């Protein structure tokens, strides 16, 4: 499955040259990992964000957000944000920062 390379590039720009960030093809798209833990990613034209189980409900009320669901069973702690909802750099930045912050709260892999 193809993913939006423009969105991936915008995420790269937001994350900067942090050596703790790596990229990996996952879920049919591209994932950005912080110290080995997935923070955000791109699938199709959408943004995947790892927000953590406690923040899921709050994240789901934000514009364009829905459960991350690959198997018919939504994954708590993860959301997908439609591409149109992150068209502005400020909106994308908020999600990317949230995903990176959650990944940073986990032990390195």
UniProtKB/TrEMBL annotation:
Species this chain originates from: Streptomyces koelreuteriae
Gene3D superfamilies: YgaC/TfoX-N like chaperone (3.30.1460.30)
Domain TfoX N-terminal: start-end pairs: 19-101
Highest taxon, organism lineage: Bacteria
SUPFAM superfamilies reported in the protein's UniProt record: YgaC/TfoX-N like
Protein name per Swiss-Prot or TrEMBL: TfoX/Sxy family protein
């Amino acid at each position: 499955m193809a993913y939006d390379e423009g969105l991936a590039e915008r995420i790269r720009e937001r994350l900067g040259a942090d050596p703790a960030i790596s990229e990996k093809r996952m879920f049919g798209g591209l994932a950005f990992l912080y110290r080995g833990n997935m923070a955000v990613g791109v699938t199709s034209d959408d943004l995947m964000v790892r927000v953590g189980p406690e923040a899921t409900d709050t994240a789901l009320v934000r514009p364009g957000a829905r459960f991350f669901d690959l198997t018919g069973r939504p994954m708590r702690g993860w959301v997908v944000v439609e591409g149109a909802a992150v068209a502005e750099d400020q909106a994308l930045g908020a999600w990317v920062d949230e995903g990176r912050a959650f990944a940073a709260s986990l032990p390195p892999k």
